[in-house]
TrEMBL record:
<dbReference type="InterPro" id="IPR046864">
    <property type="entry name" value="VasX_N"/>
</dbReference>
<keyword id="KW-0175">Coiled coil</keyword>
<feature type="coiled-coil region">
    <location>
        <begin position="564"/>
        <end position="603"/>
    </location>
</feature>
<dbReference type="Pfam" id="PF20249">
    <property type="entry name" value="VasX_N"/>
</dbReference>
<protein>
    <recommendedName>
        <fullName>Toxin VasX N-terminal region domain-containing protein</fullName>
    </recommendedName>
</protein>
<feature type="domain" description="Toxin VasX N-terminal region">
    <location>
        <begin position="40"/>
        <end position="179"/>
    </location>
</feature>
């Protein structure tokens, strides 16, 4: 069908990017499940129950009873970095909002998928696999959680063991997988049946000529334009957790997975006290949703500096027993408080195990993007106070500078008298700084005015000298930078005079020792020898001796090198400014520089320490050997299951938009100016040098990607304009096609209004065309505009 047949209501529903906490209608298709004989797909399901958990990082600052060293390690299977966490530790958490896919073998039909939605409250809703689509997942009705605790049975998934047998593979994904021909679902099924598939990669075989509109409208086979790679079943299944559906495993959770690496009894989970949803105090855990602009505004990292609990990027759903509180929120909804026990959960497990057919297992499911997102937020919570203090000190400094400037302009006194008076006032109010600048002795005063800084406590906890951020220290740095700028200007003037100067050294004797000694003197100063022919020496000596009473017998020529020029220019500049430099107390200047460097190094070390876990994980997740000169030595191996090449769309679908948002959250580095760690540089190197990275895949994952189609349309339009304008074409005749197009695009960007109008027109063209398998069938112009904004 044509994309423009979508109703405006359907378009608006697709454009909403926030989780809708609407309730599912208990009578509609959203709630019915075959596993519940047509009953509720949340709380009435039958079959083998499994409790799914993921490994997730929490800050070491958060008090938690469980011993993380007792957790299952995935290092030997290369499913997590071998380098341990240094400022965080792992705990178990329930799965976050998203989808669970289970590859199961039907006794008659063969391999097929089971699908679950995970609601915002953390319960699993079983759906027909064709109904598992990327959408705003609806919440279970509030009535299910009030008195009946229906969310507790919904915290488990179920597999009908009367229908399925043998091996099964479970995977979590934040974004629903595509369906249909060539889709993620079909590719995984093909892998299970054939053992191997061929993937089209983002990297191109060779540069391709620009297509005209006529060529764009043709359904031509372009698969040869992209690199391809075989993908075997073993590699593809690494992101899944394999379980064994056998009678023995039903009663022995440790036998559910190979060697018990990813499964164990629920009783072990409780005794280890490692599940955050059971052991974490709900009042000490706060959820920050970065996708919710309103919430992010009120709960941004710099607003949470006084919160001493654990702030998480993923919604926290306690499994403790709930009790009605006597209060209500602003909307009149009943508020609940939590008890320190989980008797309802215990009852549910006992109910599952009453038949003696099953013993409830805990199964570990991978969520690498979830780990990276959490580490990103935890890093921000530690580093945002630093950026906030830097900004605040700059703000205070500029306010005070403007205030003093206005006073000087308003005064009628002579400038030298004003400056003298200001120096005296400054010495009285800023004794320590005055001692550094003017050489006056003074007792050390307290730099930090704590009232200025909301983040004072945060930086103290990080071990950063808080007075480093004080606007007074900033003033000293700026003053010193002005002095050094003057020094550099003087030096540059001297350098300009030295560029073409050749220095000649004359000798009275021609013996080798004198010749060598003089040469060594200048070579040691960094000069370079300029070779002279015998004829040049004779001519030069004749000219020199004609104007001298002394007769020289040898001459040597030396020219400047950058090293010698730098040294001599610096020396001459210092000689020219002896009087000025005497006004400076260089000893105090050096002491200030030493202290400032020491404090900066402490700041940098703190940022590096609290960034390491995050960047190490990204290096492992996206890295490859020789991917960067800055790869940390602690990372010896890298993730070899690039699941995004199969699971992430690039065709303008909801999945595509969702993954773009996820990626932007993954790489939210929280810029701190010049403070960049080598691991941060390594991550950028990895993403940019690997043309099959997630970055390139989301941007232009195939020759029929949204980006590729949009770019070809724009270039074709420009080509048409050139053909229709002979004068313009003649002006560009000495340029290559690439240079011409680059120039035209640059000129077009100067007129934002024209560019925006043309972009809208091209998006409308894409919407109006038959998709032909190129773009998602529900693509429309507004969705394309949202994608372009994310790309920017």
């Amino acid at each position: 069908m044509k994309n423009n047949k979508l109703t405006e209501q359907e378009k608006q529903a697709d454009l909403i990017d926030k989780i809708i906490y609407a309730e599912a209608d208990t009578g509609n298709k959203d709630s019915r499940s075959d596993l519940a004989q047509g009953g509720c797909g949340v709380c009435e399901r039958k079959g083998f129950p499994l409790f799914l958990v993921r490994k997730a990082p929490i800050s070491l600052d958060y008090p938690f009873a469980g011993d993380s060293s007792q957790m299952r390690s995935l290092v030997k299977d290369n499913r997590e970095p071998e380098a341990g966490l240094i400022t965080h530790r792992y705990v178990y958490r329930t799965l976050r909002v998203g989808y669970v896919y289970i590859l199961v073998k039907h006794k008659q039909k063969g391999w097929e998928f089971l699908g679950y939605e995970i609601t915002p409250s953390g319960v699993y809703r079983h759906k027909s696999i064709t109904d598992v689509k990327e959408r705003n997942i609806k919440e279970i009705p509030q009535s299910c959680t009030k008195d009946n605790h229906h969310h507790i049975p919904g915290a488990f998934i179920s597999i009908d063991t009367s229908v399925y047998e043998g091996e099964a593979y479970i995977a979590y994904t934040r974004r629903a997988w595509s369906q249909g021909k060539g889709s993620t679902i079909s590719q995984y099924l093909e892998l299970m049946n054939n053992g191997q598939i061929t993937l089209d990669l983002p990297s191109k075989v060779a540069a391709q000529p620009i297509k005209t509109d006529d060529e764009l409208n043709q359904d031509e086979a372009d698969n040869d334009l992209r690199q391809q790679r075989p993908l075997d079943l073993k590699t593809a299944l690494k992101r899944f957790t394999k379980i064994n559906l056998t009678k023995e495993a039903y009663l022995a959770p440790e036998k559910l997975t190979e060697g018990g690496k990813r499964s164990f009894a629920f009783s072990e989970l409780k005794s280890s006290r490692l599940l955050l949803e059971l052991e974490g105090d709900p009042n000490s855990i706060r959820y920050l949703d970065p996708s919710d602009e309103n919430e992010a505004k009120h709960q941004a990292p710099d607003k949470l500096e006084h919160f001493t609990g654990f702030t998480t990027v993923h919604k926290f759903n306690s499994l403790r027993d709930m009790d009605k509180d006597h209060n209500a929120d602003e909307s009149g909804n009943t508020l609940y408080k939590y008890k320190p026990c989980a008797s309802e959960l215990d009852k549910q497990i006992k109910h599952f195990e009453n038949s003696n057919r099953y013993k409830v297992p805990v199964v570990i499911i991978e969520d690498p993007f979830g780990i990276a997102e959490e580490l990103s937020l935890q890093r921000q919570l530690k580093t945002v106070p630093i950026s906030q203090m830097l900004v605040k000190s700059e703000q205070i400094y500029n306010e005070k500078l403007n205030e003093q400037t206005h006073k000087l302009h308003a005064a009628n006194d002579r400038l030298d008298q004003l400056l003298s008076r200001k120096v005296e006032e400054y010495s009285q109010t800023h004794a320590n700084e005055a001692a550094i600048i003017y050489g006056e002795k003074a007792n050390k005063s307290e730099f930090l005015a704590q009232a200025y800084y909301k983040n004072y406590h945060s930086t103290q906890v990080l071990g950063i000298p808080c007075d480093y951020f004080n606007e007074k220290r900033l003033h000293l740095r700026k003053t010193l930078s002005f002095i050094n700028e003057y020094r550099n200007q003087e030096k540059e003037q001297e350098l300009s005079k030295l560029k073409d100067i050749t220095t000649y050294i004359y000798d009275l004797k021609t013996d080798e020792s004198t010749y060598t000694a003089n040469a060594k003197h200048y070579l040691d100063l960094g000069y370079r020898r300029i070779e002279m022919t015998e004829q040049e020496k004779v001519a030069h000596l004749a000219k020199k001796n004609a104007s001298s009473e002394i007769t020289y017998t040898n001459v040597q020529a030396f020219g400047h090198t950058p090293q010698s020029m730098e040294a001599e220019a610096k020396l001459k500049a210092a000689r020219n400014n002896v009087k000025r430099y005497k006004l400076l107390d260089t000893k105090r200047e050096q002491e200030f520089l030493r202290q400032d460097k020491q404090d900066y190094e402490a700041l940098f070390a703190s940022v590096a320490k609290h960034s390491q876990d995050y960047f190490y994980y990204l290096v492992w997740l996206f890295g490859f050997k020789e991917g960067s000169a800055y790869l940390p030595e602690a990372i010896k191996s890298y993730n070899d299951c690039e699941f995004w090449l199969m699971e992430c769309d690039s065709n303008g679908s909801n999945n595509h938009i969702g993954y773009l948002k996820d990626f932007l959250q993954l790489i939210n580095f929280n810029n701190l100016g010049d403070i960049k760690t080598v691991e941060q540089v390594a991550v950028w190197d990895i993403l940019f040098t690997n043309q099959n990275s997630l970055f390139y895949h989301l941007l232009d994952g195939s020759n029929q990607s949204f980006w590729s189609l949009m770019l070809n349309k724009r270039l074709a339009r420009i080509t048409q304009e050139l053909e229709a304008n002979p004068t313009l074409k003649a002006e560009q005749k000495n340029q290559s096609d690439e240079e011409t197009l680059t120039q035209l695009l640059a000129d077009r960007e100067k007129d934002d209004e024209v560019l925006s109008s043309q972009t809208q027109a091209l998006l409308k063209e894409l919407e109006a065309e038959e998709s032909g398998g190129k773009l998602d069938k529900r693509f429309f112009a507004e969705k394309g505009e949202a994608l372009l904004k994310l790309y920017m």
